[in-house]
Amino acid sequence: MLKHACARAVREAMHPIDVAEQLSRLPAQPMAALLVLRVAEDPDASPAELGRIVAMDPALSVRVMRLANSPHNGSASVVHSAARAVFQLGFTTVKAIAAAAASTLLADEVSLGPRHYWAHSIAVASGASVASGVLGIAENEAFSAGLLHDIGAAVLHRFAPERYDALVAGVVPGQLGRMERESFGMTHAEAGAQALALWHFPDQLVEAIRSHHDAVSSASSLTQAVILGEALAERAEPLHLGEGSPRLGETLEALGLASSLERTLVERTRAELAKIEAFLEAVG
After folding, report:
1. What is the Cα–Cα distance from 236 to 239, expressed in whole angstroms?
2. Which residue among 7, 79, 93, 209 is least packed, with the fewest CB closer than 10 Å?
């Protein structure tokens, strides 16, 4: 068995990863896909409500934002968030996207990404939306960036699930990027940025995905929201991931923010997570 696994790894390493292809094949999170279908049938539902559900799921966000930003859609400006994309595309189109995503959920080979991927994406999106308030940027853009920040990990996992799971299981905290590069030829941050760039996502979002493990002090405001969001997420809902999370106190200091904000920001992140959970239960 080990011999076969090694041979498969060699074959995979010989072929560069087509990150756009892998991203297009990612399945949607079951709950979100089904909720979109249900809410789209409600005559009293608003585009904002539907947009919020789409924004909770990385795979659905990618599909919806990709279509909204496609040249043939005729948009005069770049769509920066899943919520705005729903307004632009309309219920019927978004429902069709969700239906196509949901139709893949029964396939035996479907994987929703590496361990803790969904929970971590939601937690960082919540933290980033809270961070947006102290950084002075749009909340919906910060939420979308936080939600998509690790989309490259799902891409690498989709390409070689067993190899990526083994890599994550044996990684020393803080060394995930180095090990990803050795095994896949790129980090998850680079894979995510490359895919979103190929699909014409806004430059600032692509950069936030690419640089979310860089120094926070020299990062763009959107990247800072993701980095601070990750620090808040680890305090609000610890998952102890192999990639290592930035320390909240050090991140606040690097951003020139008062350490006294720690408790308030963590509490707000927990409240945001609770709000999302309550929202899912209410419409589920």
Report:
1. 10
2. 7
